[in-house]
Amino acid sequence: MSGSLQPLRRGRRSGGEDSRELILGTARRLFAEHGFDGTSLRQVAREAQVDPAMVHHFFKGKDELFALSVELPADPEQVLAGVETLDPGERAEAIIRAVLRLWEGPAQHGLVAFVRGTIGSTAKTALLREMVARTILSRVMAGVPGPAGEVRMRGDLVASQMVGLMLVRYVVRLDPLASATQDEVVRMVAPNVQRYLTGELDNP
Amino acid sequence: MSGSLQPLRRGRRSGGEDSRELILGTARRLFAEHGFDGTSLRQVAREAQVDPAMVHHFFKGKDELFALSVELPADPEQVLAGVETLDPGERAEAIIRAVLRLWEGPAQHGLVAFVRGTIGSTAKTALLREMVARTILSRVMAGVPGPAGEVRMRGDLVASQMVGLMLVRYVVRLDPLASATQDEVVRMVAPNVQRYLTGELDNP
């Protein structure tokens, strides 16, 4: 699967490049300020002072515009392909393997730069929050049983472990965790992720 | 305990301010390049082109110089006071409570700025790695039984969960985890941290 992890395309059009970048920059600001749901393509066009048709000319829709605004160096849909169809009770290992494959594939440098840039900036952190909740957790938590609020909490807990794992292993590079094999990481971390996904949360 | 969480003092001396800042800047660079153990006060003085006595005049020793280089907005010794004396088999809750108290006390804004600045910069990330391993994990993992390599791995795993928790709750602010009470967070997260500290790691 790691062969399919291509960075999202960024179009290069000599003519429309300026308008495209203007739209992207405007979208980035609006998504950061108002979130995904609070931002419409119409608004983006208005704030960028371009015709709405031009937004549709450059971007397939709000999802693509959002993904490009965040400048995520990988496509969550590809990375997490198959995860949402697995039994939630046995999904932790697949989530961890998908993340490890991604970070140990060609996107690694882009991801480190993405994390550094995103966490280093307040506006980008807001984008990241939107992206994690909408694009990643919606897939990771699909079909997990329980009341919606509880499932969202479980998703945040899974995120807390996975974000920490990526940071400590690939960005801060604490050893020996940074040099453990993928299988070792899965054995050590999967039971914890699985507890957040479907385990008993309230009774230690 | 949160009343005792004072930011580390930064001296302001009109006369020696320049020399002090010069020494700090040099130390920051050397610690990032060569780590704590690979950096001596003598080297710092040489590279800063000041007399070694001046380094000792401004800083109590290498530990203080390092702590000030990292610009950590809280003192790990105070934050984790008492944790290392607890039975490792029942230490997770105390670790989590110490971290939550810290981040929900007066140091919060400084900590967010610290995390943003540190993760945003390659050199600062190297400093962070040194600091986490030396100053924090040494305390958190004190007395945890097992071979040294395994205990270090357990420490990195604890760090992965705690770093992720801080980022998701306080920096990225994913809800509902960002608005859960401290008691809720402890109930949800402590069993996972405790497994990393002293639980079975290899058999899920």
Give the topology.
Two copies of one chain form a homodimer.
Chain A: H1 17-34, H2 41-48, H3 52-58, H4 62-70, H5 76-79, H6 92-103, H7 108-119, H8 122-140, H9 148-171, H10 182-198
Helix pairs in contact in A: 1-2, 1-4, 1-8, 2-3, 4-8, 6-10, 8-9, 9-10
Keywords (chains A, B): DNA-binding
Domain HTH tetR-type (chains A, B): 17-77
InterPro entries (chains A, B): Homeodomain-like_sf (IPR009057), HTH-type_TetR-like_transc_reg (IPR050109), HTH_TetR (IPR001647), Tet_transcr_reg_TetR-rel_C_sf (IPR036271), TetR_C_16 (IPR041678)
Short description:
Chains A, B: One of its GO terms (molecular function) is transcription cis-regulatory region binding. Chains A, B: This is TetR family transcriptional regulator. The structure is a homodimer of 204-residue chains. The first copy, chain A, is mainly alpha-helical and 204 residues long.
Structure description:
The structure is a homodimer of 204-residue chains. Chain A has 204 residues and is mainly alpha-helical. Chain A has 2 domains: 10-70, Arc Repressor Mutant, subunit A; 76-198, Tetracycline Repressor, domain 2. Helices cover 64% and strands 0% of the residues of chain A. Chain A has 10 helices and no strands. Mean pLDDT of chain A is 86; it is low at 1-14. At the A-B interface, helix 7, helix 8, helix 9 and helix 10 of A face helix 7, helix 8, helix 9 and helix 10 of B. Chains A, B: Residues 17-77 form the HTH tetR-type domain.
* Tertiary shape of chain A: globular
Structural class of chain A: mainly alpha
Distance between the termini of chain A: 37 Å
Largest sheet of chain A: none
Poorly predicted runs of chain A are 1-14
Query: Helical percent range of chain A?
Result: 55-70%
Estimated radius of gyration of chain A: 18 Å
Task: Look up the CATH topology of the largest domain in chain A.
Answer: Tetracycline Repressor, domain 2
Counting structural domains of chain A, the number is 2
Largest interface (CB within 8 Å) is between: A-B, 49 and 49 residues
CATH class descriptor of the largest domain in chain A:
Mainly Alpha
Q: What oligomerization state is this entry in?
A: homodimer
Number of alpha- plus pi-helical segments of chain A: 10
Assigned CATH superfamily of the largest domain in chain A: Tetracycline Repressor, domain 2
- The pLDDT mean of chain A sits at 86
User: Proportion of β residues of chain A?
Assistant: under 5%
Strand element count of chain A: 0
Give the CATH architecture of the largest domain in chain A.
Orthogonal Bundle
Element-by-element helix/strand order of chain A: HHHHHHHHHH
Domain HTH tetR-type (chains A, B): 17-77
Pfam families (chains A, B): TetR_C_16 (PF17920), TetR_N (PF00440)
DNA-binding region (chains A, B): 40-59
Keywords (chains A, B): DNA-binding
